[in-house]
Amino acid sequence: MNAPLPYDPQRLVHCAGEIIVNVRELAERGWTPATSSNFSRRMDDAHLAITVSGRDKGRLTEGDIMVVDMDGQPVATDQKSSAETLLHTQLYKRFPEIGCVLHTHSQTQTVASRLYAGAGHVHLEGYELLKAFAGNTTHETEVELPVLPNSQDMHTLAAQVDALLDRQCMWGYLIDGHGLYAWGRDMAEARRHLEAFEFLLGCELQLLSLQPRSHR
Ligand SMILES: CSC[C@@H](O)[C@@H](O)C(=O)COP(=O)(O)O
Ligand SMILES: [Zn+2]
């Protein structure tokens, strides 16, 4: 007889369904090219539902979502979770209120990460859409979106993220030449944050391209 699952299977069905529906829409916008990107949803205090590594994120089905514990270990499956699982679990472990982490590779995010890697952040100020970030109530505010150097070593990346989180409250970060991580208390909030970053980065890139070369 099989051992009982340490999580609620109905919760997995619910979380996987949310991931599949939302990620399909993000993929249709071209934000998950060539199997890139990864997505997760907190199931309970000890488990998250996360995409299996290497899958085409535009065609996810229930079999492409698996369960890992807060140390990133697969639970009741021999599938391999996202290569970037640690960047998800570190957020869930640190912030019990976080319920969803979304990582995408749109062209806007990738170009912005290259342009602002030297500065180490993208400064966003004066936009009405800054109110999309939880806690902001006016456009008269500033958000610094950090840009981290890329690494294939997840422990190096996670250490950089932890150092940033020690210093500032944030809802996302860019990785140079790579993409964007954004999160929130639930899927709707994480998606709102992701879409807001995408829109604001697009605005900044367009403003830059409209500036005369002498002012750049
Ligand atoms: C296809 S290249 C992108 C990957 O290296 C990685 O950055 C990524 O986002 C997807 O990795 P995955 O292991 O499928 O979660
Ligand atoms: Zn990635």
UniProtKB/TrEMBL annotation:
Residues reported in the UniProt entry to bind Zn(2+): 103, 105
UniProt keyword annotation of Transmembrane helix present: no
One Gene Ontology term of the molecular function aspect: methylthioribulose 1-phosphate dehydratase activity
Known pathway: Amino-acid biosynthesis; L-methionine biosynthesis via salvage pathway; L-methionine from S-methyl-5-thio-alpha-D-ribose 1-phosphate: step 2/6
Chain coiled-coil ranges: none
SMART domains, A to Z: Aldolase_II (SM01007)
Catalytic activity: 5-(methylsulfanyl)-D-ribulose 1-phosphate = 5-methylsulfanyl-2,3-dioxopentyl phosphate + H2O
Enzyme Commission identifier(s): 4.2.1.109
Cofactor: Zn(2+)
InterPro entries, alphabetized: Aldolase_II/adducin_N, Aldolase_II/adducin_N_sf, MethylthioRu-1-P_deHdtase_MtnB
Enzyme class: lyase
Residue ranges of every copy of the Class II aldolase/adducin N-terminal domain listed in the record: 17-205
Cofactor details (free text): Binds 1 zinc ion per subunit.
Keywords from the UniProt entry: Amino-acid biosynthesis, Lyase, Metal-binding, Methionine biosynthesis, Zinc
Membrane-traversing stretches: none
Family to which the UniProt record says this protein belongs: Belongs to the aldolase class II family. MtnB subfamily.
Function summary: Catalyzes the dehydration of methylthioribulose-1-phosphate (MTRu-1-P) into 2,3-diketo-5-methylthiopentyl-1-phosphate (DK-MTP-1-P).
Protein name, entry field: Methylthioribulose-1-phosphate dehydratase
Organism this protein belongs to: Novilysobacter selenitireducens
Name of the gene encoding the protein in the UniProt record: mtnB
